[in-house]
Amino acid sequence: MVNLNTIAPKNGRSYYIALGLEGSANKLGVGVIKHPILKEQEIGDHSHDCHAEILSNIRDTYTTPPGEGFLPRDTARHHRNWCVRLIKRALKEAKINDPRLDLDVICFTKGPGMGAPLHSVVIAARTCSLLWDIPLVRVNHCVGHIEMGREITKAVNPVVLYVSGGNTQVIAYSENRYRIFGETLDIAIGNCLDRFARTLKIPNAPSPGYNIEQLANKCKNKDQLVELPYTVKGMDLSMSGILAYIDSLAKDLFKGNKKNKILFDTKTGEQKVTVEDLCYSLQENLFAMLVEITERAMAHVNTSQVLIVGGVGCNVRLQEMMAQMCKDRANGQVHATDERFCIDNGVMIAQAGLLQYRMGDVVKDLKETIVTQKFRTDEVYVSWRE
Amino acid sequence: MSSLTIPQFPAYQFQITLFQNVSNAETIRSKIADLSYAFIDPKLIVSQEQLYSAIYKALIEQKYNRLRTKTLHSECLFCLGPTSNIGDAFKKFGIKDDSRELICLKVINLSDNNDVKEDLDGIIDGERIVFNDDNLSKFYDRELIRKTYKLDKHFVPGNTEELSRALVNAIQLRGL
Amino acid sequence: MSQELVDQVSKYLTPAIPIEPISQGAEAVVFTTTIHPYLPTINEKQKFIIKYRPAKRYRHPIIDRSLTKHRTLSESRLLAKLYQIPGIHVPKLIACDPYNGCIWLEFLGEDLPDAFGFSNLKNFLWMHASENQNPYGDIVRETLFKVGEQIGLLHWNDYCHGDLTSSNIVLVKKDEKWEPYLIDFGLGSTSNLVEDKGVDLYVLERAILSTHSSYAEKYNEWLIEGFSEVYKSNGKQGAKKLNEVMKRFGEVRLRGRKRSMLG
User: Fold this and answer.
1) Which InterPro entries match (chain B) (predicted)?
2) pLDDT (tens digit, 9 = 90+) per residue, C136-188?
3) Is there a single domain that holds both residue A181 and residue A287?
């Protein structure tokens, strides 16, 4: 039995309000969420349907010039520059006039992520907490994605495909933990796409992955796929090999290396493959691998629902492929959120944090608010589910 | 004579006859081009399963237009072998001039009305016996089979069933 | 399983082969039939497995055809090779049609009592974890030990399964005990790399952890005991190789735990 109303809202209110702060990578997100207190949430498992109301969801992304990735130090500086502005704006939009009275809890990302940026954000969290005398809750970034996905889509117990710049995991819930069934053995898919985008020197705004998707859509040669290594190993997958290979193809293309038979016709020297073709082939291969390991987890756990979360989840082609796979498994459904929630944001931290808070999880000593780069999804005890 | 139909390919019927004490193998061999049978050397056949699995494979290959030999019955002979060398397969699995036993395989296309009823007893000078594993066990040469199918030296089958299984594996995987 | 899929397979097999769908794995659908592809029916109760890898519509046709053929062949080849290794238990390959992604195999296993389902390791462990059962009983320990032995034999002979989960281990009753058979070698390969063996063991460890969490520690211990026995019985060389595999297994484990995860 799970009682989500274990901790009462402050000041005799009939609802909870949480502020969430997220900055584990290059997106700084601040969000405010409201949960009404509902009698039926005292028994059973309702954490996927909190009737949450999103009062504000503000985000600012630190974008670097084409061909460059974002470094921790610069990212941290960006977050420090923007957090006060964003917090003020978020509170204003949420019509929070007096945080001291109106906020129940401040939630921040404990990890995983980049050290310096995480650190900048937690300082803001601690400051606000001390300033307004509001308790703090530490949230796992991945769990944030999962809980937001569940709340938005109302999926009860899906297999979760979490795909972002820093993570690629297939997760299923079992006995109070989000267990990792499959994951990348080396780099994350978002990272793979981002790095290829750098090789291609395409713009990083709005996001490198989005630009690769647009290029892939422009591919005129969809019937001819460039053959890439396909590396699924059981429930896991490996992507560094594909990246290395496609990077070398791209370099040969730019150099005009006519010796490369895949790219250039041996007799006429004519270019057979374009940048768009490479992007298309890369997506088709990578996404096929992701869909395959997701399907494996679904078969093993015996479920027919999938929830895609994380930045790469915004990719329409990935959603399409996943939907087709689910459809072919009778009654299967894919759930996905839009870019407001797929991409890192503060609201998801508030959602997960508020669930934790309602179950009695709260920081008792500031010493507990240390951030950590490495924080496995399955380390979190999911008290708010049965 | 044993009659076999393969469930997935109802258009064909296979008639298999086992002969012993054959005295005119050389004559039969000289006429092979004119006869529409496959003559198989029982020294290399340990079980019905082994032969039937080769027939199945030949039918599958035919279905996807991948016949390597001219006729279905010659394809069955070819499919018995573990390698893709047609000449080699015919040489090893076909009867020899001094063969005293043979297995005769006839393919009947049920939709084909031009069925020439050839008189096997007129062609083969030998004694018909039942085509079953018991009788086959009298004729097969274990060492020859091990060598032909390149069986692993650590693999020591305890009975015909175990040996047959390894051969079926080789047959199914040939060429793939 | 969608009716469309069943119809697709029925069409390929023709009405002469009645099929009963039994499961839909990630890449193949499995049916049983009472008709042998090329042997006359011996007894009415005989059963065979048909494993069919349907075309996956979600992926590009070029990737799909290549994968289907490759996986069908790979699995068939492995079953053939492993059969000849003394001590290893795998299902019998009856027929293989790589052009259509279809394999016929012998039927192994049975239904467990009290509706616990088919006798794979997963259901067996769930059965023993249920009320009035002893999850740490002798039969569980012995069976897991034997499973470890099968994997040990596999690795000792330089093969990797590639997809070791408790659903891919079928238990066959023999004299009141259970004999484990490894199935589903679609992702299998020959490999003498400690990395591949380490990953194989890690995948199984995680699979046990995910689906049998409460008893996973002991279960994984028993699995490794059986595994180690095979290597140890091969003298000094065996002990040395065991060390190498275990060491790499440990590293793969840590890699997972400490993998740097960025937002």
Assistant:
1) CGI121/TPRKB, CGI121/TPRKB_sf
2) 999 999 999 999 999 999 999 999 998 888 888 999 999 989 999 999 888 88
3) yes
The number of domains in chain A is 2
Tokens of C40: 């006359």
What is the pairing mode between strands C102-106 and C48-52?
antiparallel
* C162 contacts A233? CB cut-off 8 A: yes
Exactly one of C97, C114, C163, C184 is catalytic; which is it?
Answer: C163
Higher pLDDT, C12 or B115: C12
CATH code of the domain in which A114 resides: 3.30.420.40
- Mean pLDDT score of chain A: 92
pLDDT at position C263, please?
36
Specify whether A323 is located in the same domain as A352: no
pLDDT digits (tens, 9 = 90+) for A339-350: 889 999 999 999
Chain A residue numbers with beta carbons less than 8 Å from the beta carbon of C255 are: 185
* Residues in CB range of C124: below 8 A, 6 or more apart: C112, C116, C140, C143, C171, C178
Q: Which of these, B57, B49, B99, lies nearest to B77 by C-alpha position?
A: B57
pLDDT at C224: 96
Residues A17 and A114 in one domain: yes
Residue A166 annotated as lining a ligand binding site: yes
Asked if residue A91 lies in contact with residue A70, where contact means CB atoms within 8 angstroms, the answer is no
ipTM score assigned to the predicted complex: 0.89
- Looking at the structure, do residues A102 and A61 belong to the same domain, yes or no? yes
- Identify the domain containing residue A184 by its residue range: 165-340
Let me know whether A93 and A235 are in one domain: no
Q: Could you tell me if A111 and A215 lie in one domain? A: no
**Subunit contact B8:C39, Cβ cutoff 8 A:** no
Nearest-Cα distance to chain B for C7, in Å, is: 15
CA separation for the pair B158, C79 (Å, rounded):
19
How does pLDDT run across A126-176, given as a tens digit for each residue?
999 999 999 999 999 999 999 999 999 998 889 999 999 999 999 999 889
The yes-or-no answer on residue C138 being catalytic is no
Q: What is the pLDDT of residue C262?
A: 39
Distance of residue C38 Cα from the nearest chain A Cα, in angstroms: 31
Q: Is A207 annotated as a binding residue?
A: no
Cα separation, A272 vs C221, in Å, equals 55
Q: Looking at the domain assignment, is residue A5 inside a domain?
A: no
- Nearest CB neighbour to C80, from listed B10, B55, B173: B173
Domains present along chain B, CATH in parentheses: 2-173 (3.30.2380.10)
Contacts of C92 in chain B (CB under 8 A): 165
Q: Is the peptide bond before C180 cis (omega within 30 degrees of 0)?
A: no
Domains with residue ranges and CATH for chain C: 3-106 (3.30.200.20), 121-256 (1.10.510.10)
| Chain C contact set for A111 (CB, 8 A) | 261
Does residue A295 share a domain with residue A250?
Answer: yes
Same domain? For A204 and A336 the reply is yes
